[in-house]
Amino acid sequence: MSTETAATAPIETDAVIIGAGPVGLFAIFQLGMLGIKAHVVDALDEAGGQCTALYPEKPIYDIPGFPRIDAGDLITNLEEQAAPFHPVYHLGQQVSAIAGDAEAGFTVTTSKGTTIACKVILIAAGGGAFGPNRPPLDRLAEFEGKSVFYLVKRREDFRGRRIVIGGGGDSAVDWAVSLAPIAEKVYVVHRRDKFRAAPESVRQLHELAGTGAIDLVTPFQLAGLEGEKGQLAAVHVKDLDGRERSLEADRLLPFYGLANTLGPIADWDLDLHKHQIAVERSTCETNRPGIYAIGDIADYPGKLKLILQGFSDAAGAAHHAYGRVFPDQALHFEHSTTKGVTQL
Ligand code: FAD
User: Is the CB of 48 under 6 A from ligand 1?
Assistant: First the structure.
């Protein structure tokens, strides 16, 4: 994988893909098969979008041809499939502005000052710039990434730990059930006695609480952190009557959902439908010619926020974009079996 973090002079390429989630990664392949070179920008430090950031070890069952595949493995495969086309990844930077048009070409600018000149833009930005809802705790930043985590990348990293999980939704309940067998202790702190998760998961949670494997700390809320140099020693919780408890713990997993904002995308003169961009269904072109939206961020009648539909969006957008990148060349449709994979 080729990676550039920042550049001063504008880089020139055919296409910029905004978002390195599963759909952005597959778009590299689709563009590449048509001879279109791509640079990919993502706000996160790693490729994979929701699959990497939210559920890398969860199996997905509805990817055609894979009866079951872990989300992280799907991303590895997509990166491998894209690799022959030598995409350049600009990770850890958000696209902050786009300028220009299909006639004159576009310029994409990122939060790190990278500027890329291109002929077409494919927005594969999922739910937009997403980040965790953070609990309002003093000194939180000191512990983030060291002993406070908003996602579990590797379950094994939590073996033998004393873990406080905050929240009452699917993530909180699923991870409590999943981590209980390998953790020294799991507390689940929730402000209500009832959990908003799949009934079977809630049943397992109560069963584990019955055996003492999980301590349900309800109705309590997180109130403070104790520890030094980013290493947690205890998490303080409070109930509505002001009663306090101190939970000895070395890991905190606050699962309060994701803040979902379009961020700068809302300022790009695109036709927005709430948190999505309206596109023409067959081509995924937006109201701005030369700018396409694919995957979860795209909206058209019957749109399903599924990876497989995002893959189809990527194919449609790439074929339409060909006419914009190579206006003087007719596109002769060929199957991959006929064409093979030719490196760019
Ligand atoms: P995303 O995966 O959301 O990636 C978008 C990327 O764009 C992100 O990395 C983000 O950082 C980046 N980005 C956004 N704005 C900017 C910007 N301005 N600059 C730079 N980068 C930006 N789908 C299925 O088909 N099957 C399943 O079984 C399934 N299970 C799921 C389970 C869970 C727990 C969750 C949360 C989702 C599940 N999904 C499933 C949904 C699936 O993950 C999404 O449909 C898919 O991730 C959408 O891919 P995407 O590439 O469009 O967007």
Answer: no
Arithmetic mean of pLDDT, 143-166: 94
Q: For ligand 1, say whether the CB of 275 is within 6 Å of any of its atoms.
A: no
Closest atom of ligand 1 relative to the 127 alpha carbon = 3
Q: How far is the CA of 223 from the centre of ligand 1 (A)?
A: 31
Q: What percent of the chain has pLDDT over 70?
A: 97
Q: 148 CA to middle of ligand 1, Å? A: 23
> Is 267 near ligand 1, meaning CB less than 6 Å away?
no
Ligand 1, from 40, 50, 108, 255: best to mutate by most atoms within 8 Å of Cβ? 50
Any ligand 1 atom below 6 A from CB of 23: yes
Distances (CA, A) of 92 to 20, 119, 129, 272, 334: 11, 23, 12, 25, 36
pLDDT value for 4 = 53
Measured distance CA(91)–CA(4) in Å, rounded: 8
Q: Say how far apart CA 195 and CA 177 lie, in whole Å.
A: 13
Name the residue type at position 258. Answer: L
- Binding site membership of 52 for ligand 1 (Cβ less than 6 Å): no
Mean pLDDT of the region 292-309: 97
Asked if residue 95 has pLDDT above 60, the reply is yes
Rounded average pLDDT over 65-82:
98
What structural domains does the chain harbor?
Answer: 2-130+259-339 (3.50.50.60), 134-256 (3.50.50.60)
Neighbours of 240 (CB within 10 A): 9
SS3 label, residue 313: helix
Question: What's the rounded Cα separation, in Å, for the pair 135 and 222?
Answer: 8
Mean pLDDT of the chain: 94
The predicted structure's pLDDT at residue 3: 55
Q: Which atom of ligand 1 is nearest to the CA of 24?
A: 51
The predicted-structure confidence for 274-300, as pLDDT tens digits, reads as follows: 889 999 999 999 999 999 999 999 999
What are the pLDDT digits (tens) for 142-154?
999 899 999 887 8
